[in-house]
Amino acid sequence: MKRIFSVLAVLILFFAVAPFKEASAQEVTSQSQLNSSNTEQSSTPTTVTHETYGISPQKANVTLDIEARSTGGILGLWNYRNPGKVVTFVALKMDLEYRENFLHPWTTVDSVDFIYPGGLGEIAQDEHTFYPKAKGQYRLYLSGDVSFGTGGNHIILYSGARAYDGKIIISNDPDKLELK
Q1: Of 128, 136, 135, which Cα lies nearest the Cα of 101?
Q2: Cβ pair 28, 39 in contact under 8 A
Q3: Using alpha carbons only, how large is the chain's radius of gyration in Å?
Q4: What is the pTM for the complete model shown?
């Protein structure tokens, strides 16, 4: 009896909370046309693509890598590729973030700016070596904009964390240690 009552109570809550009104694309288009005075009035829905606003994040490929160098330091590498677009300007900032261990929050300890005209190709890339002194975990944070002729991409990206000691480079595999 308790089980039947529990099932009925769950069904009643489900029907009380779940919205059953369906919205169609035509209703949304009509409401947005009524709410904005700058929008051209039309009875057919308009398709808006990312290219209309100069943003094409689905085409851009951005990578951010962090490496502990055997000669000392932490190397941060970023690479931006957007096929069919010509990079005209780069304005990125790479932050080196540190924490002593997983119990501590991340704090920014160093940063470098990459601000320059693009190389007029579809690829932009750069690197920087940081020389931290504290033992702990490090990661990179990349943010900023890469512009091309008809727009650009805003980039926010984190690298994976990397353990680092000024004297010993600790690899991803805890059983392997590389001495400096």
Answers
A1: 136
A2: no
A3: 25
A4: 0.60
Can you tell me the distance from the alpha carbon of 166 to that of 111, in angstroms, rounded to the nearest whole number?
19
The stretches of the chain forming alpha helices (DSSP H) are: 2-17, 25-35
Beta-bridged to residue 129, according to DSSP, are 75
Q: Is the dihedral of CA 10, 11, 16, 22 positive or negative?
A: positive
Residue 13 confidence (pLDDT): 63
How does pLDDT run across 21-34, given as a tens digit for each residue? 444 344 333 333 44
The answer to whether 92 and 144 are in contact (CB under 8 A) is yes
Closest among 160, 161, 50, 152 to 92, alpha carbons compared: 152
Are the C-beta atoms of 51 and 125 separated by less than 8 Å? no
Handedness of CA 134, 179, 170, 129 (dihedral sign): positive
Those residues whose C-beta lies under 8 Å from the C-beta of residue 55, and which sit 6 or more positions away, are: 151, 152, 153, 154
Cβ atoms of 169 and 110 within 8 Å: the answer is no
Specify whether the CB–CB gap between 85 and 57 falls below 8 A.
no
Higher pLDDT, 4 or 128: 128
